[in-house]
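Why does this matter for the project? Reviewers at the last site visit asked to see concrete outputs rather than summary tables. In response, this paragraph embeds two records directly. Each consists of the residue sequence and, immediately after it, the corresponding structure tokens. Nothing has been edited or filtered.
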Amino acid sequence: MTDRATVYHVPALLQESVDALEIKADGVYVDATYGGGGHSKEILSRLGDGRIIAFDRDADAATNVPKDRRLIFVQNNFRFMRNFLRYYGIGKVDGILADLGVSSHHFDESERGFSFRFPEAPLDMRMGRDSVLTARTVLNTYPQDKLKRIFGEYGEIKQSERLARILTESRARQSLDSAADLIEAIAPLIPKQDEKQFLAKVFQALRIEVNKETVALKHFLEQTVNVLVAGGRLSVISYHSLEDRAVKNFMKTGNVEGRGFKDFYGNEITPFKVITKKAILPGSDEIGRNSRSRSAKLRIAEKK
């Protein structure tokens, strides 16, 4: 890997998430969120003749891919994992790893519009630049009730109704085109003592909607049931409660809603054995080295 890959993204819980896969030298693994390639690099270091199929919808991630015949890079959304595995003649895999966090590269590149740190940045937020929907489109065209749902569900913002109303009133006067436009419009709602956290929730909600992250995660998780071999491991790192709840529910029940099913004898029917009863969190040393890892939660399950 190049130094650029390290700058692109410092992976959280690297050793723990890869250890969870119990790598076999001749195994086949999926890195569902390639990014800077840190997790794939670690998996490659433990492989012999095995293979990795890595996914990332952002073309920028392709510049981090090493020349290694054991790695196949797919520039596409991980929600299409099963289709691409079939395309490459792969029926089952021994392990799947997903780091659901946004790469540092996205937050630090002002023109991508992921961070409120760059006021003049365009309201973009697309993970894949070939997508049509942007945060600007969401803010300027979505009806008020849909904006309320997005900020309430994806940002868990209590004042989502008032926030949606302020935005629709503001855009009627002037189009919301930049981060500065958005921040100025919602200024009356931003708590002075908690400004960064509030803005982070607003931007998170928009990013999730633009990239349809909850839908993609649901489709991805559902595919793991048929893709993993018996005894195969699923290792997932999440960063906010919405993601973590879906992952936790899925590993426990086999569906993101957490609906439990029982057999005739009252035994729970689930395709997985949960390895982590409680999520694994980064230690103080890792947080000191990489502050963006502080909200990371790792959950591990094994296919029955």
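We now turn to the second protein, recorded in exactly the same manner.
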Amino acid sequence: MQRAIIIDDERLARNELKKLLQDFPEIEVIDEAANASEGIDKIESLSPDIIFLDIQMPGKTGFDMLQELDRAPHVIFTTAYDEYALKAFEVNALDYLLKPVEPKRLADAIQKVQQAEEKEIASHQQYSNRSLLSENDQVFVKDGERCWFVKLSEVRLFESVGNYAKVFFGTNKPLILKSLNALEERLDEKTFFRANRKHIVNLRMIEKIEPYFNGGLLLELQGGEKVEVSRRQAVKFKEMMSL
């Protein structure tokens, strides 16, 4: 059973979707929200498996809302704007539905939900400690007009830039409005290591380790970035890696 929240500023659209979803017993609509702020509160308090999300809403858009979430659930966009269809795929949403929603397209989208869920179970991605972000959690990153859902396992490096953090994955390096200290509190230290004041590295993305000045270490990551491990952190790093 997938627990869902519908987020749309139009009450009629929410009611119509709820009515259509009655034909899908595997989806339980646990709540609804009329705007992004309400949506964030409900997602954070209820932790749904999936959200049906309108893009154009007064105030914040659906994309803006996703950017403020620590962890992104599965997302199916519902929109009257065809021009956003491409963008929705760019951010790797499960699907997008054009309004008025057709039952056949909804059935296709629900099937994608089931497939995503089966993949997660197969990959043991059901973590009991939900306060920590696991490497299999996905986060939403928006940089200008570009948007991504990124699995944390694909992020090799976080770099501090004032109150922002630069996120390195693939060939991308967008900024997110989160400090490195805030990120460190949420990331699993078995995977993500605070190398120094400015960098958190993904331990699984390290290609090479070399001794460095004053008892420190120099790490080379899969993307070619070189990150210094401070002397104090090098002691901890060696213990963790049993060097």
